[in-house]
Design brief:
By secondary structure, the chain is of the alpha+beta class. 31% of the residues lie in helices and 32% in strands. It contains two helices and four strands, in the order βαβαββ. Helix 1 packs parallel to helix 2. The radius of gyration is 12 Å and the shape is globular.
Length: 84
Amino acid sequence: MLGHEVWTAQLMLGGLQCPTPINVVSNAISKAEIGSVLTILTDDFICFMMLQRVLRILNVEIKETVQLDENNYRIVVAKSHEIS
């Protein structure tokens, strides 16, 4: 489709506490084309856990969840279908 492209993006959400990261990630996923990959970085453990729950509800493919160090976490997701 003209004007639509698959993309890879990184959301750096350090310093933000829920629900702000949930809103940012949900909006990014809804705007992403199928096949897009999103890497989410956060420094808040509760946010890391809540994002995983929301991503499962949105039924996106969670490719990776990892604790990078004592205070940093990464989630990588792929949008494999439209979210209703």
